[in-house]
Amino acid sequence: MQLLVTTAPELGLSLDSAQLRQFEAYYRELADWNSRMNLTSVIDYEEVQVKHFLDSLTVLPALAHTLPSDARLVDVGAGAGFPGLPLKLVCPSISLDLVESTGKKATFLRHVVETLGLTGVEVHTGRAEDLAHRPELRASCDLALARGLARLPTLLEYSLPFIRNGGLVAAWKHGGGGLKDELASAQQALQILGGRVKTIYPVKAKGLEDNRVVVIIEKVKITPDDYPRRPGMPRKQPL
Q1: Which of 18, 180, 212, 236 could staple 203 via S-S, CB 3.0–4.6 A?
Q2: What is the pLDDT of residues 144-173, one digit of tens each?
């Protein structure tokens, strides 16, 4: 994990030997399972350290280190566990809900959680449109994580219902004109769902110099009960 060791300080992080062993074990499981099922197209040892592990951690400086140590996070569309599980390894006292609709990927997530001996992590198999209506998940989390999920109007409908008032959504995006257009297209979704753009944090870390940003959205009012709409609607007919 040498690349992770040398680049983490650029995010204000220092990883101890126990955490590095967990990241190493995580990589081994990812590579093993990826040989049998499609978890990620990025599987090279060094690339995973930067493009998955380090990239997942870029949300921490974007939050200006204000994330409470006991915060509840939800990773919407968790896939192979990024960004939720790397954040759990660095911030072990947080609680984490991993939302994943594909059963095989959810099985992998449960395996990794058990292999790494993590506590305070729940894997929920199902679509965000359904899970966000469950009383134990709705308006219950402090931070929603959305990496590689969807364009902002759809992403917001997937994620904001999970968040309590005053909580945040963190969306990994690429900057530039495309982001400007995406933000403009999200204004109606923000208004309906109860969010506002709080900040756009430019990512500055070696190996991630491709105009990456983390968009932080604050939930400022309750999301109406009708949202998210039935499965498929947020993507087919964005707000």
Answers
A1: 212
A2: 999 999 999 999 999 999 999 999 999 999
